[in-house]
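Lecture 7 notes: from sequence to structure.

We start with a single chain of 269 residues. Read the sequence below before looking at the structure.
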Amino acid sequence: MFFKTKDLMTVGNISLGLAGVLVAMEGMGVSTREEAGTYVFWSGLLIIMAVVFDMFDGVVARALGQMNQFGAEFDNVADLTSYSIAPAFLLYLAYQKYAILPGVEFDTTLRTIIAVTVAMFPAVFGCIRFARFNVRKLDVPGFWIGFPRPMAALFYVSLVNSHLYLGSGVMGWIGVVLIVYASFMNLSLMPFIGHHDRKWSWHLGIILTFVWLTTLVAFVAGVIFKVMPERTVFDVVLLWLSYDLFIQWTDIPKAAREEVARLTADWNE
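Now the structure, written as tokens:
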């Protein structure tokens, strides 16, 4: 039987991603920006929860000795659903009903065009990445090639749910630029620090531990106990992913970057 116990984690990943899609679709029926913000929040939270399930499928598979090719392919399809398609629906809702775009009124054709265009980027670029890695999968121990789809998805949903985005009109337009940039980096051949087969340096280990602790505290304190703004968890995730997207390459040795460049030299031929 192909389906194993560990694949239930992947089912959770897909289910939560699709739930994020459905919540975003429901949000399209609201009449006020404030109502749309609630649907943007819960759709984003569901996608974050999908990432949590995705993180543990490999842990469960190794613990139960259930590693197989079916699980790898199943996980890849689930990632396409939760990290490319679900964020596309969320971004469409955010830019159609929620984003402040100076110079663009709500309920206009121009806003719809902007929303559709923004939503296309994670979906189209995610599908291209999916197909490219199916044709030629390159594993470099300790690194991902291109900005990983889970991180890209978290970046999209955290951006449109952050307090910075909520309170600033200019961030609506800056958000468009950041979404396009993150999507292109999804297909880039730049190495990004990964956790598979990596021996963590002491300073990166401290940073990673702090990432998880601050995110967990923000989620528990904000979403569950309401002792801080509930969107704080998105602020924290956006902060850390901005580091990963723009700065983390400084922690990659020059020799490692050159080796990745050599391995991927013919990828775009």
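The CA atoms of residues 83 and 150 lie 6 Å apart. Keep this in mind for problem set 3.
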